[in-house]
Amino acid sequence: MHTELHDISPPAGSTGRRGDRVFLGLSRGAGLTILVLMGGIAAFLAWRASLALAQNEGNFLTTFEWNANASPPVFGIAVLAFGTLVSSLIAMILAVPIAVAIALFTTHYVPRRIGSLIGYVIDLLAAVPSIVYGLWGALLLVPHLVGVYEWLDSWLGWTVVLSYDGGAPRSLMTVGILLAIMILPIVTNVSREVFRQAPDTHQEAALALGATRWEVVRTAVLPFGRSGVISASMLGLGRALGETMAVATVLSPSAILSARILEPGGGTFAQNIASAFKEAGEFGRDALIASGLVLFVITLLVNGAARLIIARRKEYSGANA
After folding, report:
1. 153: which DSSP letter?
2. Which of 61, 136, 166, 178 is the most buried (most CB within 10 A)?
3. At what angle do helices 112-127 and 172-196 cross, to 10 degrees?
4. Whether the Cβ atoms of residue 248 and residue 277 lie closer than 8 Å to each other
5. Any idea what DSSP says for residue 139?
6. What is the rounded average pLDDT for all residues in the chain?
7. CATH fourth-level superfamily of 85-281+297-317
8. Is the pLDDT of residue 281 over 60?
């Protein structure tokens, strides 16, 4: 019985079935909608920020004081930028090593069932609202950090950065510890997925050559997942930079820029906006929007850098695994 094979590919110039054309149109429309929304947000922030910056008496980038309702208004982001970057850096230093260790432990050191259970528990941390983290930090974390800060001061107080004079530790260090807990699920989950995609052939080859479990991880898994871990860290950094309610609940804000990260004081962009927006007048809100524009740009740069790093490594998608 002879069976003819017919070419079922669409004719040249055809766009395929109607469903394909509809899906393509919807996909393009969704992508363009996101771009329009982002452009609209950026344009609104830039417009309102320009109204405030035109009347500001000080230098917006270097002024410590924030008094937008004064006459003449004076406000700047020096303290806010310092506090945002320092607290986020502390969070990254604390969270990333722990997150990578958890990801490696759940993917290469325990049975899959136990690893999945641990991963599920880590996922629950991402589901906790930020205000709950803030309340936990204010009521439980802050009181219990006094002894830790006194110990750090006794051993490392000579560095000035880790000196502590007592009082409630509502400081940038406390904010960094809280943010580290909040970004831990993000970095862990992405790193875990990256490590799972490490090629089995590479790991089996290392084992065949007599490598230990750690040597397999060091030579075959970590090099493969390096860019993924960096991208996960940047995604966590983006979360830390924009966190609002938890920081506002824990931090004792001030307009003093100090290198002593254990002492109360400092501020962040998001915390300042949340704390001052309700009492601010129309001009004060424009000033807050100006600081929000800076945070918007920083967050875009961080997430854009993460996407570029992911795009540079095709292995991250698992296509070559």
Report:
1. H
2. 178
3. 140
4. no
5. I
6. 86
7. MetI-like (1.10.3720.10)
8. yes
Confidence of residue 225 (pLDDT cuts 50, 70, 90): confident
Asked whether the bond before 97 is cis by omega within 30 degrees of 0, the reply is no
Domains of the chain, by residue range, sit at: 85-281+297-317
For residue 89, give the nearest of 266, 223, 304, 277 by alpha carbon: 266
What DSSP assignment string belongs to 75-137?
E-SHHHHHHHHHHHHHHHHHHHHHHHHHHHHHHHTS-HHHHHHHHHHHHHHHHS-HHHHHHHI
CA dihedral 163, 166, 168, 174 (to 10 degrees): 20
Of 220, 230, 221, 124, the closest CA to residue 181 belongs to 124
pTM of the model: 0.86
Share of the chain above pLDDT 90, in %: 45
Instruction: Determine the Cα angle at 69 with ends 64 and 71, to 5°.
Output: 90
What is the per-residue pLDDT for 9? 52
Q: Residue 243's closest CA among 275, 268, 261, 264? A: 268
Q: What are φ and ψ of residue 75, in 5° steps?
A: -155, 150
pLDDT at 310 over 60: yes
CB atoms closer than 10 angstroms to residue 72: 9
Q: Residue 213 and residue 218: Cα distance in Å, rounded?
A: 9
